[in-house]
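Sat 14:20. Reprocessing the chain from the morning session after the first attempt stalled halfway. Input below, unchanged.
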Amino acid sequence: MTIRVLLADDQELVRAGLRMVIDATPDVEVVGEAATGAEAVRLVRELHPEVVVMDIRMPGMDGIEATEMITAGSAAARVIILTTYDTDANVYASLRAGAGGFLVKDMALDDILAAIHVVAAGDALIAPGVTRRLIAEFAGRPEPAPPPELGRITPREREVLTLVGRGLSNAELAAHLHISPGTAKAHVASLLAKLDARDRVQLVILAYEAGLVSPAR
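Finished this time. Tokens:
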């Protein structure tokens, strides 16, 4: 199955570099390009890509607002934020908007291509340097009280949420818990529904905020 990708960046050179790598990959294709956030939202509705690689700073509507509109719409597109400006404010705003990935532009193009495959498969990916900052921030917080939403989940789902918070994929969940990949996927889907989470990124954040995962563990 070919992964359909939309590139959204106001720098033509960035789009050209990504297109060059993607065009050389058999199972990924660029179906469209946008230079503004508004254009990205429109093209998602027209072209139905699986993944949108989105810059933050663009003329008019920025990438975060565009991401929120895309993930809230009926299209099933997943968004990877790809930016030079990896400030904490941008990271949190992007994740709250529903982005399934957050990368920085100084990453190797092959790593960005690998991230497209990861996010298209329904997993989440955050640049290693950004992840270290997030963990450091959570490490400095007092031990949190479990949010009331956790009362809705079963002990098994709580265990799954903890493992998702540690970054395990569905296949890794299945191997760790000795269950089928389908059962692992069903547990994650149940968590998304019960916790009103948009995607795995929000499950990871919830696992940290609930104290199920900490850097020490």
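The chain has a mean pLDDT of 84.
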